Amino acid sequence: EEIVVEGVTLKEDLAVIALNGVSNQAGLAARIFAVLGQNHILVDDIVQNIYDEGKLANISFSTNASDAPAAQNLCQQLARDMGFDGVSIDKGVSKISAIGVGMRTHTGAASTMFDALAKAEINIKNISTSEIVISCIVSNVDGARALRSIHDAFGLDKIEPRSNQI
Amino acid sequence: EEIVVEGVTLKEDLAVIALNGVSNQAGLAARIFAVLGQNHILVDDIVQNIYDEGKLANISFSTNASDAPAAQNLCQQLARDMGFDGVSIDKGVSKISAIGVGMRTHTGAASTMFDALAKAEINIKNISTSEIVISCIVSNVDGARALRSIHDAFGLDKIEPRSNQI
Ligand SMILES: C[C@@H](O)[C@H](N)C(=O)O
Ligand SMILES: C[C@@H](O)[C@H](N)C(=O)O
To answer: For ligand 2, atom 3, which residue shows the shortest CA distance?
Structure first.
């Protein structure tokens, strides 16, 4: 089906915090994000995968660089209280997003985007999608180059290099 | 900041396939999704987390129930060719999405959504977001109840129980 990617955006100077080995039981994500919300941590995107035959989960979220230390401390406290493995932090990252209308199945758009990054030898750290967005977390140093590569791969004329409009 | 969730949708009869222990090196996501694309697998959402000090990645994607067996076979072949740990599949799942405009930071909306599911004792298997969507994967048996709980939690008047419009 036709890939209808209309724009690419870059959001720089983020950090990704990962909570590893969270027990896959109802109510735990609610507790974690209630604590972050009460402490006014800005959460950008959230991704969660399950593993170990569905017993455990890894939850990551992106936040801006300035909120990252407070967010990390809160999550480390939660790790102690809730008994999960631990918290890791990836600083100095950017989020690159391809935005399209009618991207109801992602396979074509995802292949094109990931292939553009692969050819540019840019490593993809996290991926999160919705029906109209495919977002990849990359290192800050790769951001501008990722933006150009993906923009070219989708044959777009205009770049919105740092747009908050979506 | 104000939570502006405008609708909740439910997409049923999906499967989530997880590729575990993929080496966190440039080019691998591109290869995986190129193979899926060439084989016409419908990919709905994609999530990727990294772990083990950034050395490894878990990548999951949702597909419809009918594409799941073919997708699983392809991924098992990729696991052998690319040497990652393995492939797991979670069948009989649904995706529930809260959609909002101006949900620029997710913390408030995410807390409300996860809390609604927690109170309904519904387990959240996967999470994926973009600026305007928060999606949770739950079991098919929990889908309708999840929809009602989240709809109520956000004080919405209309439900779009099975909508593909976003
Ligand atoms: C891991 C966490 O998301 C858990 N499954 C929950 O529902 O809260
Ligand atoms: C794991 C996979 O996403 C890898 N990091 C890549 O860039 O392709």
So the answer is: B29
